[in-house]
């Protein structure tokens, strides 16, 4: 089964996604609390899939995406845009779409978001 890295500064969201993945049979799940943590954990874990929030403190998801892509051009990353998606600039959205395999929006349920991310992979 796939090794998955969940990246979100909100512990509640990590728990929701982790629970959803666990119910679907995924057991090799890892967590990162912000973009800097994600880059560090990506480099050490080499996960099969990364589910990453975009709006986070310290290092946001876009910066982390770029850092991960610089180290591994084949990284399998799904960007997760939460309720603040309307505050993301058009340039940032274009940058996001250029660096991920899939984008999941906050308008989806956790189950649908996870299913969408996994279906692309």
Tell me the layout of helices and strands:
Layout: E1 4-7, H1 11-23, E2 29-32, H2 35-45, E3 49-53, H3 61-71, E4 77-81, H4 90-99, E5 102-105, H5 110-120
Parallel strand pairs: 1-2, 1-3, 3-4, 4-5
Provide a brief overview of the structure.
The protein is of the alpha/beta class and 121 residues long.
SS summary, helix count = 5
Tell me the CATH architecture: 3-Layer(aba) Sandwich
Looking at CATH, the homologous superfamily is Response regulator
Order of helices and strands: EHEHEHEHEH
The number of distinct structural domains comes to 1
Q: Total strand count, please?
A: 5
Give the proportion of residues in helices.
Answer: 40-55%
Describe this protein's structure.
The chain has a single domain, classed as Rossmann fold (3-Layer(aba) Sandwich). It is globular and about 35 Å long. Helix content is 46%, strand content 18%. It has a five-stranded parallel beta sheet, with helices on both faces. The chain starts with a strand and ends with a helix. It has 121 residues and is of the alpha/beta class. Helix 3 packs parallel to helix 4. The chain is built from five helices and five strands, in the order E-H-E-H-E-H-E-H-E-H.
């Amino acid at each position: 089964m796939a090794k998955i890295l969940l990246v979100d500064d909100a512990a509640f969201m990590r728990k929701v996604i982790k629970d959803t993945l666990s119910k679907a049979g995924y057991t090799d799940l890892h967590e990162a609390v912000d973009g800097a943590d994600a880059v560090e954990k990506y480099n050490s874990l080499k996960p099969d899939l990364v589910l990453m929030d975009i709006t986070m403190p310290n290092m946001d998801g876009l910066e982390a995406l770029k850092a991960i892509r610089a180290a591994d051009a084949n990284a399998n990353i799904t960007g997760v845009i939460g309720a603040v998606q309307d505050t993301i600039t058009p340039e940032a959205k274009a940058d996001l779409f250029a660096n991920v395999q899939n984008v999941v929006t906050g308008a989806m349920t956790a189950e649908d978001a996870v299913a969408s991310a996994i279906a692309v992979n």
